[in-house]
Structure formats: structure tokens, C-alpha cells
Amino acid sequence: MKKIILIGILLFESLFVTAQDFKKCALHIDNGIEKIKLKDFLGAILEYNKAIELIPNKHGEPYYLRAFAKMQLEDNYGAMLDYNKAIKLKPNFPEAYYERGLLKANLKDDRGAILDYNKAIEMNIDFAEAYFCRGLSKISLSDLDGGCLDLSKAGELGNLKAYEAIKSFCK
């Protein structure tokens, strides 16, 4: 009985995160971002690990940022797990869907990438990069008309690379 009560107390305490923990978490996230700027991806991952330890299962951003760092180190499996976790914790996170779409496209899963780009665009209709990448994935799957329309939309939204891609693919 004492064991059950102790487990209950531990579970109850784990539901709450103190303001101090959030401040420490933010500091580790900021440190990780600085390490990314210096291309110290392993150092960034270690900072994001510390942030996650402070507030596990509460916040999507540290998982999202750690996934980006893992991608730079070509840890695609680990990055996919972190993007999935970020999206689970923060379902309305268009950047996480977009980045996971990039990872899927890099892994030659253009259909899966398109689904993620669709979600990102659904949440942010002015997401030029998502239109651009969705266009390239559609072209990769031989949907030239759909791909060229997406590239055109990306260009309208300010993505200048889209016009170069249109010159190459949409003749």
C-alpha cells in the first residue's frame, strides 16, 4: 500500500513544472541555438537533452530543435523520432511538419513528405518554403502540373528559388 501511495505522489508531482524549471529549460534552449550557430551540433543536442530532462513531455520545441541538430549529424532515425514527439506535444506546429517533410523527402519518401507539407500549409497558408518543397516532391512523383503550381505559389510568396525551379522543370 505504501508503494502505491509513493508512486501516486511521484506521478502527481511529475505533472507540475516550476517556473524555475521553465527558466532553466529556456536557458538550455538558448545555449543549444548558440551551439547550432557555431555548428556544434553535438553540443546543441546535449543542451536540448538538458531542457527535455527539466520538462519531459511538456514542450515540443526542445524535441524539434534537437531533431534539427540530429539531422545535421545524419541521425535520420533519431531526428524522425524527435520530430514525431514535437508534433505529438504541439500538434499545431507547422515548422515541425515542414522539417519532418524535408527529412522524409531526403529519405525518398515523397508521399509522406507531401502529407507533412500539406499540414504545414494548412496551418500557415503563406508558408513559401512548404509550397516550394511540396512542389519539388510532387515533381519527383511525376505530378508536374501540381508541382509547378506549388512552385508558382512559392514564388508569389517570395521564394526566389522557386522561379529557378520553374525554369528547370515547368517548361
Question: Can you walk me through this structure?
Answer:
This protein has 171 residues and is an all-alpha fold. Helices cover 78% and strands 0% of the residues. The chain contains ten helices and no strands. It has helices spanning 2-14, 19-37, 41-54, 61-72, 76-89, 94-106, 110-123, 128-140, 144-156, 161-169. The radius of gyration is 19 Å and the shape is elongated. The termini are far apart. Residues 5-15 have low confidence and may be disordered.
Fold topology:
Blueprint: H1 2-14, H2 19-37, H3 41-54, H4 61-72, H5 76-89, H6 94-106, H7 110-123, H8 128-140, H9 144-156, H10 161-169
Helix pairs in contact: 2-3, 2-4, 3-4, 4-5, 5-6, 6-7, 6-8, 7-8, 8-9, 9-10
Please estimate the helix content: over 70%
Q: How does the major sheet shape up?
A: none
By helix and strand content, what is the structural category? mainly alpha
| Model regions low in confidence, pLDDT < 50 over at least 5 residues | 5-15
Distance between the termini: 74 Å
Order of helices and strands: HHHHHHHHHH
Oligomeric state of the chains? Answer: single chain
> What's the pLDDT, averaged over the residues?
91
Would you count the extended β strands for me? 0
Shape: elongated
> What value does the Rg take, in angstroms?
19 Å
Tell me the strand percentage band.
Answer: under 5%
Number of helices: 10
